[in-house]
Amino acid sequence: MNLKYYRELRGLSQAELAGIMECGTGTIGNLEAGSSKPSFDLIIKLAYALEVEPCDLFLRNSSNAQKEICDFLRMELPQYIKEITDKKFPIQETDNN
Questions:
Q1: Which pTM does this prediction carry?
Q2: What single DSSP character describes residue 51?
Q3: What stretches in the chain show pLDDT beneath 70?
Q4: Into how many domains does the chain fold?
């Protein structure tokens, strides 16, 4: 879990994050140490408090990677689809003479 990374990135101590989260510092410490697992609700609250997407708590910068992939596909996919359809379903020119 990337909790410590994002907490430190925001310049927060465990106590400050615990205050924002309205939980004990032990909860934050246990999560960072990996000795406890967060509930779904806690994941959502942590992500909100740290201003990240919930998935980023488990795979660092995954929301950025997802955006990059989507942007790439939006740019590249139409050309690939055109190439495939042109190859599979070629438009035959008719001679109207």
A1: 0.62
A2: T
A3: 61-66, 69-70, 94-97
A4: 1
